[in-house]
Amino acid sequence: MELSINGERRALPSGSDDPAMPLLFALRDGLALTGTKFGCGIGQCGACTVHVDGQPQRSCLVPVGSLAGKAVRTIEGLAADRIGAALQRAWIAHQVPQCGYCQSGMLMAAAGLLARTPRPSAADIDAAMTNLCRCGTYPRVRAAIGSAAAELAGARRP
């Protein structure tokens, strides 16, 4: 089975190609893309968030068999996108990560938000960012998303 991962076709090795296998394990165990984290395994925490056809998805709930013809982007491919690069700069500037475990999922959720809503309100951010952070960096996450949105809005001006 082949998947489109971060813009390239990748063949899943034997053992990671069961159509019922969650994408999370195919990424981590089959393709050694370990930036996507296992958190709860039931789609609640968001540590495993990736993009499927541009939409944030909890990869622990997505069977690889459902991904034929779809594009998957993981945290490893985020910097290639202008939104992702702006978010990564903002994450560093606002010192968002503490332990860092949830951060790849947070960044992927934030990138999905800014792709849909380039100038999100505080309510938009709160509604979109359902990922859990044990360290409680939510105020920094909100500030970083706001900074990235402002940077991207400025970059669009002629």
Would you kindly provide a brief summary of this structure?
The protein is of the alpha+beta class and 158 residues long. Helices cover 38% and strands 12% of the residues. It has 2 domains: 2-77, Beta-grasp domain (Ubiquitin-like (UB roll), Roll), CATH 3.10.20.30; 81-156, [2Fe-2S]-binding domain (DNA polymerase, domain 1, Orthogonal Bundle).
What is the terminal-to-terminal distance?
44 Å
Main β-sheet description: 5 strands, mixed
Number of domains in the coordinates?
2
Mean of residue pLDDT values = 94
- The residue ranges in which pLDDT falls below 50 over 5 or more consecutive positions are none
Shape: globular
Query: Looking at CATH, which topology of the largest domain would you report?
Result: Ubiquitin-like (UB roll)
Radius of gyration: 15 Å
* Topology, number of strands: 5
List the strand order in the largest sheet. 2-1-5-3-4
Which CATH first-tier class of the largest domain would you pick? Answer: Alpha Beta
Helix content: 25-40%
Based on the coordinates given, report the CATH architecture of the largest domain.
Answer: Roll
What's the helix-strand series?
EEHEEEHHHH
Percentage beta strand: 5-15%
**Considering the protein shown, what is the CATH homologous superfamily of the largest domain?**
Beta-grasp domain
